[in-house]
């Protein structure tokens, strides 16, 4: 689906919300006028009628949604591949931020894609452009339970990736990484599928080697607040190579560094979404700790090309996928502020526990074996991300004023 079509759909939603809001304000003002003339009973009656109408609208919206699912929508054109080239591909976590961009790319190549997501952080709207397409299937399923599907490739992305999200339920995060990965590796073994694990730069912990190359073993606090994710992904890597060595599963391991772009959730909690949304709302940009810690930021389309190149390669050892241009968080806050403008100030708040102090990928391997390197500059990637968040913030503000006007009725 093109950016233009997405933007058009969003504009339509905003327009619809604006209309609803106007209508509600109109009804509200009618009520206030009537309030003076009518008895308390008639006001209550009106309120009841309005509540019934809201319920009815909800029912109709649900019916509309079901109809939309039954009637195939107009999806983007995809090439028709012959049976030798066309693959059946499972993407776990395919309704998430990264997963849904991967799904778009695979669908646009003409493959059959099955998305499995438990919708903890994934969102149906990220993949709804494909619902009804003959090459696409969406399954609500939690991969801590086994899954039986026939596929040629598995991209295993399922797991919350933002620190506040993965810390929210650490036991569940560990279960997803261990039981979920065992289930997906078991599936890969049964159906002889190539398995790609979305691992992370967090396996290096708070690194004492810089930049981080794949041969570095890491520096992780095994009982700290980040351990559920860091150790979970380390265990997932261990399982992946155990299945590769003992069960002859064909595996790939991508160590993904900080990635950003459209479809990040407004409340994602990671720095790109936090700073951008804060700046767009004229709120202070919250730098955790001194702001001297560093990160390097990869635009999501670059990550997707790296993941696909890895899956299609024969390279089985872990490989870093990230952008090697490093920024301090202080500098990054200034960049966001300059791009967005507004009245926000940059403030320093409490440091996050066990926050890695320096992070920058060594991408020599990706360069050498995948001929991959990032192609989108930070400036270009941030412009696209800011445009996306502008629309999200507008939508959010409309929803807030809508619910405020409902409550005041
Ligand atoms: O509002 C904020 C949010 C974050 N930060 C800081 O910004 C830096 C980056 O934080 P993020 O939460 O975006 O991401 P982190 O680097 O901590 O973790 C990420 O690492 C790589 C991926 O695998 C995961 O997406 C995620 O775990 C940290 O130093 C953090 O303390 C702020 O200063 N302010």
From TrEMBL:
Its main location: Golgi. Coiled coil: none annotated. Keywords: Decarboxylase, Glycoprotein, Golgi apparatus, Lyase, Membrane, NAD, Signal-anchor, Transmembrane, Transmembrane helix. GO terms for molecular function: NAD+ binding; UDP-glucuronate decarboxylase activity. Its cofactor is NAD(+). This is UDP-glucuronic acid decarboxylase 1. Pathway: Nucleotide-sugar biosynthesis; UDP-alpha-D-xylose biosynthesis; UDP-alpha-D-xylose from UDP-alpha-D-glucuronate: step 1/1. Belongs to the NAD(P)-dependent epimerase/dehydratase family. UDP-glucuronic acid decarboxylase subfamily. GO terms for cellular component: Golgi cisterna membrane. Its EC number is 4.1.1.35. Transmembrane segments: none annotated. It is a single-pass type II membrane protein. Pfam families: GDP_Man_Dehyd. Gene3D superfamilies: NAD(P)-binding Rossmann-like Domain (3.40.50.720), UDP-galactose 4-epimerase, domain 1 (3.90.25.10).
């Amino acid at each position: 689906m093109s950016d233009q079509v997405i933007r058009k759909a969003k504009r339509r939603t905003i327009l619809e919300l604006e209309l609803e809001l106007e209508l509600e304000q109109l009804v509200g003002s009618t009520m206030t006028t009537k309030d003076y003339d009518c008895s308390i009973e008639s006001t209550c009656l009106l309120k009841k009628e309005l509540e019934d109408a809201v319920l009815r609208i909800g029912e109709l919206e649900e019916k509309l949604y079901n109809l939309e699912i039954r009637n195939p929508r107009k999806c983007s054109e995809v090439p028709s591949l012959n049976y030798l080239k066309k693959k059946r591909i499972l993407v776990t976590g395919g309704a998430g931020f990264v997963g849904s961009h991967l799904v778009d790319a695979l669908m646009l190549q003409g493959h059959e894609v099955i998305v499995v997501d438990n919708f903890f952080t994934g969102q149906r709207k990220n993949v709804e452009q494909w619902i009804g397409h003959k090459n696409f299937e969406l399954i609500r399923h939690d991969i801590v339970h086994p899954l039986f599907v026939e596929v040629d490739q598995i991209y295993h992305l399922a797991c919350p990736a933002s620190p506040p999200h993965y810390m929210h339920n650490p036991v569940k995060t560990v279960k997803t990484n261990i039981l979920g990965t065992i289930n997906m590796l078991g599936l890969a073994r049964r159906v002889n599928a190539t398995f790609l694990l979305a691992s992370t730069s967090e396996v290096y912990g708070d690194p004492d080697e810089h930049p981080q190359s794949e041969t570095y073993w890491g520096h992780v606090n095994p009982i700290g607040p980040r351990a559920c994710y860091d150790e979970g992904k380390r265990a997932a890597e261990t399982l992946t190579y155990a299945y590769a060595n003992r069960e002859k599963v064909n595996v790939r391991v991508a160590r993904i560094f900080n990635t950003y772009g459209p479809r990040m959730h407004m409340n994602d909690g990671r720095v790109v979404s936090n700073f951008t949304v804060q700046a767009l709302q004229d709120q202070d940009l919250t730098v955790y700790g001194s702001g001297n810690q560093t990160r390097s930021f990869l635009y999501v389309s670059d990550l997707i090309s790296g993941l696909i190149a890895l899956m299609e390669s024969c390279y089985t050892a872990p490989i870093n996928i990230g952008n090697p241009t490093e920024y301090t968080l202080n500098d990054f806050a200034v960049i966001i502020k300059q791009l967005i403008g507004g009245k926000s100030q940059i403030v320093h708040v409490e440091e996050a526990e066990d926050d890695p102090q320096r992070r920058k990928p060594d991408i020599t391997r990706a360069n050498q074996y995948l001929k991959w390197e990032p192609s989108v500059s930070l400036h270009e990637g941030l412009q696209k991300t800011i445009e996306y968040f502008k629309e999200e913030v507008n939508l959010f503000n409309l929803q807030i004023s809508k619910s405020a006007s409902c409550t005041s009725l």
